[in-house]
Design goal:
Blueprint lengths: L4 E4 L14 E5 L8 H10 E7 L2 H11 L9 E4 L6 H9 L3 E4 L7 H12 L6 E5 L6 H15 L6 E4 L3 E6 L2 E6 L5 E8 L5 E7 L8 E3 L6 E5 L5 E6 L3 E7 L1
Parallel strand pairs: 1-9, 2-3, 2-6, 3-4, 4-5, 6-7
Antiparallel strand pairs: 7-8, 8-15, 9-14, 10-13, 10-15, 11-12, 11-14
Length: about 250
């Protein structure tokens, strides 16, 4: 665990105030209903756009529903067991690069992350993944596991964005998270997924922790809240998943 503080402003990648195109946007195979405005803001910031397998079905569906035929992903990756043939053909005809990733030892999401950072690393400062924490539990946990896999190939933030919350992985050390931009929600949590976290100290929360141990089967931090200061500081001895509500 090092003493350097890592700074992150996750909402800068999610709102219209920033115009730099420096986001890697990954769309997983989950419904996009109700996410058009968020997706529109992200698409403006995206320097790399990837649909993962059936995520292309969902992208085409929301585009048709909103009369938007300008969003063409740069890449479609996966083992192609979910994407409809006509959708694959449509995007291929529009110039999308089709990248087969048949390795069954990893999820399509994990393979997309590996492809992005192997081929487009210099184009992105962070990755935002459009998904949901719903459906089959194993798939949700698989997505969280991919945050750990991503940490082995990059130190750039990888943020999973769902309808009502986001999540990303904190490595051991000190973190300062800027949540003061009018987009944040109230609830948040710190989840020791993957193993015991021996020590967590925070500021900026309604119920702060001081050298607390977090472990499934013992104590975890759920339904916490921001204290309104706009900055959350976290020091953790082990990897920890930060999650918070969004509007």
């Amino acid at each position: 665990m090092d003493n350097e503080t890592r700074y992150l402003s996750p909402f800068l990648y999610l709102i219209n105030s920033q115009t730099d195109k420096n986001v890697g946007l990954i769309i997983l195979n989950r419904p996009l209903c109700g996410k058009y405005e968020k997706l529109k803001a992200l698409w403006k910031k995206a320097s790399v756009t990837i649909c993962v397998d059936g995520g292309a079905n969902e992208l085409q569906k929301i585009c048709v529903e909103n009369g938007n035929f300008e969003w063409i992903p740069q890449y479609i990756t996966g083992d192609f067991d979910s994407i409809r043939e006509e959708v694959l053909a449509y995007y291929k005809d529009k110039g999308t690069k089709i990248i087969p990733t048949p390795d069954q030892n990893y999820t399509d999401f994990a393979k997309a992350i590996r492809y992005l950072f192997s081929n487009c690393d210099e184009q992105v400062k962070a990755v935002v993944v459009i998904s949901e924490f719903s459906g089959l539990l194993d798939q949700t946990l698989g997505n969280i596991n991919t945050l750990f896999i991503a940490s082995n190939v990059t130190d750039k933030p990888v943020i999973i964005l769902a309808s009502d919350c986001l999540a990303f992985l904190l490595q051991p050390g000190k973190h300062s998270i800027d949540v003061n931009n009018g987009y944040e929600g109230l609830k948040c949590g710190l989840l020791p997924i993957g193993g015991k976290c021996n020590s967590v100290t925070t500021s900026g929360l309604k119920w702060n922790l001081t050298n607390h141990a977090l472990e499934f089967g013992q104590t975890i931090s759920t339904s916490n809240a921001l204290d309104g200061s706009g900055i959350v500081n976290i020091e953790t001895s082990h990897p920890l998943v930060w999650t918070m509500e969004t509007l």
